[in-house]
Amino acid sequence: MLIGGVEAGGTKVVCGIGNEHGELLEHKVIATSNPTETLNAVFSFFAEHPIAALGLGWFGPLDLNPERSSYGRLTSTPKLAWQGFPLLDTFQARFPVPVGLDTDVNAAVLGEARWGAAKGLHTVAYLTVGTGIGGGLLVEGRRVHGSMHPEVGHLLVRRHPDDPFAGHCPYHQDCLEGLAAGPALAARWGTPAEHLPDDHPAWRLEAYYLAQAVVNLMLTVSPQRIILGGGVMKHTALYTDIRRQVQTLLGGYLQHPGVSEAALDPFITAPGLGDFAGVRGALALALDALRH
Amino acid sequence: MLIGGVEAGGTKVVCGIGNEHGELLEHKVIATSNPTETLNAVFSFFAEHPIAALGLGWFGPLDLNPERSSYGRLTSTPKLAWQGFPLLDTFQARFPVPVGLDTDVNAAVLGEARWGAAKGLHTVAYLTVGTGIGGGLLVEGRRVHGSMHPEVGHLLVRRHPDDPFAGHCPYHQDCLEGLAAGPALAARWGTPAEHLPDDHPAWRLEAYYLAQAVVNLMLTVSPQRIILGGGVMKHTALYTDIRRQVQTLLGGYLQHPGVSEAALDPFITAPGLGDFAGVRGALALALDALRH
Ligand SMILES: Nc1ncnc2c1ncn2[C@@H]1O[C@H](COP(=O)(O)OP(=O)(O)O)[C@@H](O)[C@H]1O
Ligand SMILES: Nc1ncnc2c1ncn2[C@@H]1O[C@H](COP(=O)(O)OP(=O)(O)O)[C@@H](O)[C@H]1O
Ligand SMILES: [Zn+2]
Ligand SMILES: [Zn+2]
């Protein structure tokens, strides 16, 4: 049996074919454009492979409340061509098989919890730190939606006393994303994040802000593991710096063995599935859709 | 059929007898003291009533992981007489009936979601603002535990520019609890919170800090409703002030009809069960224990 998975982000779409164990057999990367072009490319990828179920991990905001008539549509998005697009219906019309749908970040956290860095855990957060900051959340085995799309990127953080930068978020200026996403780093320092040297003061501030997001997640949903991915985390020294800052910020309040610098099984970690977390998670959504 | 529920907080214990609909038929309030005295009083209350199931909403920290040998015990608590106390085993030995156990705040959120201000909702947060600040959380119908007890009281908030107070938390100084719990207000202003006049500047700061906790919960777990209870919220003007500050802090980012000041069905609200949220929630735990 073959199943399909699609992870769609703002810049690229990863289509994958998997087997009944959710292993990725084949995949293709497509640039994200308007709905017609993007879906034509996705459909033609799957045309060659008869799939028994499909999972979609899509950029948001999506209506994920099955009780609403707008269920499965994109809602208000700055990508105007996608606004209101009936994503689920369009796929369902093309593929008369069970289709599972969630956000790209919830697909990523699901993939990681099933086969990656959080294998076997039930309460897991996934933060992607890239062009924006987004988060996926699994609580007691369930993907979290609530009444709005969780938008962890806009968490209010404490500004570092050494940071005079006004912030880069159009809504809040100095929220987490406004201080710590890739474009904020570029605007703050005048250099793209990937060109900032290892000893640049940017990284200490970056760890300070991301550590606050980690601490606030620990204090609200207390995940068993927090996975940090996305382009900015390619600066891998951040993992150690963030762990250290988390300990400082907690001030000895919570003891968590995985937070110590010497932890064998670190609480704050990189995606185990690397760039395939999202598409593997989409395969997991397909398998779950098949079962229900 | 009769069932029993106990809500145990740091200062008082509420014991209740309910029927199969979770309605409270009779209750008794006992002062919290050491385990022997406290449980003797609880046991003698229930001695007169044959119960078919029991629910316990107890102050923490509790080990709530059924896979650990310390499951159902109190862990490290400043109440030294209770440290390591085998709560669940002690009750289970006395009452050979199904026993459900959770924290007092999770019992409260469960009670509110079943019969109170969040009736029928699946993702709900409950914050109690009193001697400390604690939180209970229901996500997609499940009570949240994660790998540690969620300690939402110690969220890191942004200090208000007009607030020079160092903060009152022994771990973090100016975390949420260190700035906004009852004792922090008393230390900050030299007057118990209940004696601060309505036009005192304390309330603007208080709303600012509590609004940040609300916003961070909205951005992480996006509850369908946030219930604020506890002694400090007896200053009911806080509800309107917090709603207003939440809108300011969100900066138009999230639109939620219930957050507006004119909302008929407010997103930020008082407990519908008043002081009985915890004991009613304990009855819900008893009913759930009976079913599983
Ligand atoms: N090695 C690196 N170190 C730090 N930042 C990087 C690195 N590589 C890419 N970035 C930053 O990551 C961001 C892109 O993140 P990415 O997750 O790849 O994209 P997107 O969020 O659009 O999916 C850019 O802002 C870029 O500057
Ligand atoms: N009307 C009121 N307005 C503001 N604060 C109050 C009021 N009544 C009590 N408080 C404060 O609430 C706190 C006690 O909270 P409560 O929830 O009753 O107790 P606990 O947290 O110990 O269970 C005290 O710090 C007290 O100053
Ligand atoms: Zn923002
Ligand atoms: Zn604290």
Can you describe what's shown?
The structure is a homodimer of 292-residue chains. With 292 residues, chain A is an alpha/beta fold. Chain A folds into two domains: 3-104 and 274-291, ATPase, nucleotide binding domain (Nucleotidyltransferase, domain 5), CATH 3.30.420; 117-269, 2-Layer Sandwich (Nucleotidyltransferase, domain 5), CATH 3.30.420.40. Helices cover 32% and strands 18% of the residues of chain A. In chain A, the strands form two sheets. Chain A has a five-stranded mixed beta sheet with strand order 3-2-1-4-5. Chain A has a five-stranded mixed beta sheet with strand order 8-7-6-9-10, sandwiched between helices. In chain A, helix 6 (202-220) crosses helix 7. Chain A binds chain B through residues 123, 135, 137, 139-159, 171-172, 212, 215-224, 249-254, 256, and chain B through 123, 135, 137, 139-140, 142-159, 171-172, 212, 215-224, 249-254, 256. One zinc ion binds next to helix 4 of chain A. Chains A, B: It comes from Alicyclobacillus cycloheptanicus. Chains A, B: Keywords: Magnesium, Metal-binding, Transferase, Zinc. Chains A, B: It is an enzyme of class 2 (transferase). Chains A, B: Its EC number is 2.7.1.4.
Shape of chain A: globular
Helicity of chain A, in percent? Answer: 25-40%
Order of helices and strands of chain A: EEEHEHEHEEEHHHEHEH
Number of strands of chain A: 10
Main CATH class of the largest domain in chain A: Alpha Beta
The main sheet of chain A comes to: 5 strands, mixed
- Give the bound compounds: adenosine-5'-diphosphate, zinc ion
How would you describe the oligomerization state of the chains in this entry? homodimer
For this structure, what is the CATH homologous superfamily of the largest domain in chain A? ATPase, nucleotide binding domain
Number of helices of chain A: 8
Distance between the termini of chain A: 17 Å
Strand order of the largest sheet of chain A: 3-2-1-4-5
CATH fold annotation of the largest domain in chain A: Nucleotidyltransferase, domain 5
Helix-strand category of chain A: alpha/beta
| Rg of chain A, alpha carbons | 19 Å
Overall pLDDT level of chain A: 93
Q: Approximately what portion of the residues of chain A adopt beta-strand conformation? A: 15-25%
**Unreliable residue stretches of chain A:** none
At CATH level 2, the architecture of the largest domain in chain A is 2-Layer Sandwich
